[in-house]
Amino acid sequence: MQAQKNGYTILVGEDELEVRGYLEIALKCLGYSVELAQDGEEVINYLRSSSRPAVSMVLLDLIMPQRDGMEVLREIRQIDPELPVIIVSGAASTLNIVTAMKSGATDFLCKPVAHEDLQKAIRGALENRTPIQPAPLATPSSAKTKVFLGTNPRTREIHSLVANIGWSEAPVLIQGETGSGKEVLARELHNNSPRSGKIFLKLNCAALPSELVESELFGYERGAFTGAFQKKAGMFEAADGGTIFLDEIGDMDVRLQAKLLQVLQDREFQRIGGKDTIKVDVRVMAATHRDLEKAIAERTFREDLYYRLNVINIHLPPLRECREDIVPMAEYFLRKHAVAGRAVSLTMDLKHAMTTFHWPGNVRELENMVRKLIILGNPNLIARELHAKVMRKPILSSAVNSSVAPEAQPAALNESGITPILQQVTKAKQQAETEAILAALNSTHWNRKQAAALLKIDYKALLYKMKKLGVEDNAGSLAAASPEEAPRSMIANGD
């Protein structure tokens, strides 16, 4: 039974769903209002947001994705030096405890946390702190985006939609290539919605087997399957009142799509192995890089689910179609990831290299390049790498055409003129392996031992791959090889 509210709000930063659920229940039983965050980035975003209820304390795990707890603790101290922060962690080494206390932690609790210890630590930390009155939520008209705004017309049109559709409860489907910023846009929509003070949970449907995706979303009852030793709440229960973001939904199993459709239609579901119906109020956003209409035709995606999710559809353009935004976006990332004492600027050569590169990894690849630039502090090196990548593809293609055996050449078309899909996959895999092997061999002057080390595979495995793919030795390959390599080479080739 939930106790009477005492006027304090506690923010819980914890990536483990079960621990987060336990802390939420325990705190509510003690009379506290609770806000949840599943990683360090969400904790910081919450504390920096002016549209969310102010918090009286933070319960923070040390080991979390995006940012580790120690880094988050130091940043919290920059935001609010007086805010109580209790570390709750299973990594309770002496070094971690000492480092946390020196970094400004109010207290340190070891997992698993006893209810009495939790209550005592919280009371001690809040002893001299006045309850904070909740701040009113921002209205849609006052919502502001905090992400990069480019000059490309399509990009600006998309960002202008954030405040207009963020307030809505309708499902949103975001489509675009990998790394184009689909999750960033989903978080912005959530932050500009009436649910901004509630939790935002993300699940990558392509990263887990379908059985695990189902248990993560809907939870399970004790004994539902082997290994289910206790009842577990799913993400839909944890996100009640908030938002769930289903990334790569095009990879979700068809059977599971039917259960998701039921939740979207009826706002209720049953845990795995359970009989009780659980009602939830969750806004669902989804994203994919796949062509869902094509997937519907191939019967790998349900048409009724597509139309249920596709109430609002946003298509993010790839970075190569927004070249005027590449340099300004890189400068934005330079400011975002700036490190004290590491002044780095974009040279003209680097700017030219960035605008000529095709960016297959889109915005994510650009941001990683900027982070690398800040670490190395050498824009000329980064520019050379980008120029080399632009030139590498045609060079490798010509090398493959001259070195691949006939059996590794493109498969013949069938009677309808279309290469069977499995042959296409096999051909693509063989071509990728061949390109990697040739690149390593060429860079080591066809010294296969050095090439194997460069590829991080066993020497004999490299010889087998070369023989299987038909990568022929250069005329001088045996001469270039080390003396001890030659006999093994001849054996591998049947000599």
Short description:
With 495 residues, the protein is α/β, with parallel strands linked by helices. It is 47% helix and 10% strand.
The count of DSSP E runs of length 2 or more, i.e. the number of strands, is: 12
Q: Roughly what percent helix?
A: 40-55%
Q: For the report, how would you describe the main beta sheet?
A: 5 strands, parallel
Q: Give the DSSP E fraction (strand runs of 2 or more residues).
A: 5-15%
Number of helices: 21
Label the structural class: alpha/beta
Radius of gyration: 27 Å
Ranges where pLDDT stays below 50 over 5 or more residues in a row are 130-145, 394-419, 475-495
The backbone outline, from C-alpha atoms, is: globular
- Strand order within the widest sheet? 2-1-3-4-5
User: Would you tell me the overall average pLDDT?
Assistant: 80
N-to-C CA distance: 80 Å
